[in-house]
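Note to self: keep these together.
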Amino acid sequence: MKITKRSLLYSSLALIVALALLYFAVFRKAAVVVEAGSATRGAMITSIDAEGKTRYHDRYTINAPVSGKMFRVQLHEGDRVPKGYVLTRIDPSPPRPLDPVQSPETGSYPYAYSVYIPEDGILTKIFLASEGIVQAGTPIAEVSKPTMLEIVADVLSSDATQIIPHMPVLVENWGGEGTLKAKVRLVEPQAFTKVSALGVEEQRVNLIIDFVTPPAGLGDNFRVDVKVVLWEADNVLRIPTSALFRNGDDWNVFVIDGRKASARKVEIGHRSPSFAEIVSGVSEGEMIILHPPRSVNDGTRVSTN
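Structure:
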């Protein structure tokens, strides 16, 4: 069989292609499997988050008006009490001679001082319940009016500088369905030192927060989570914050371009724990890599499978 130059050329080209395919099959790195997300439009808020506790706004501490023998308190914490109800009686010290006429209700002397409930409300604390000698001014009980429920939450002093009265607050994890609306009433003017769970001393500031509509079922000293809303918008171009990484002083993301990762500088605006607002660098709908692994660089082949 006569071998022509053309057939020899074709054979050589076929061999080169076969060798190239073999090379890529053996030596080419496999695509890095990545998690993908996308740039979307939607609602976004930035907030300062904190744990808080509810408390009744109007609280009255009932103190002993005189020193002497206090008779046992018959009520219990949680009892509703009317204004003017006699909480207990106190015989002044030293005791006076026994009068033949004693109170049939309490067994106290008729000249003992009556300790009255100052306002309609709930008996939230009883400091002294048993019979015994008390000094004038000793706290006996606390009565609270449940008509006004507020939240106390402490934040870092550096965060407190960003918060002003009337800012909206979202109340979550309160024990019922949905998110409750509230607003900041007061940022207390003085900070205090608090040790964090990691043992670090922090300067904290208390926020006093009012419910827009107090829910049924919440009482005194209940735990809630609050989000003080610093900024919010309904139609924001955003990406998950897990896509961001630093390159020098700039924020970058890996955009999935075909089957390759393409590093791209982005300018971000507001941030939340979940999302970052995109000012420039990424368009709506573009796919990006979330939690980019160290094995991914500009030009790396990637797969989302």
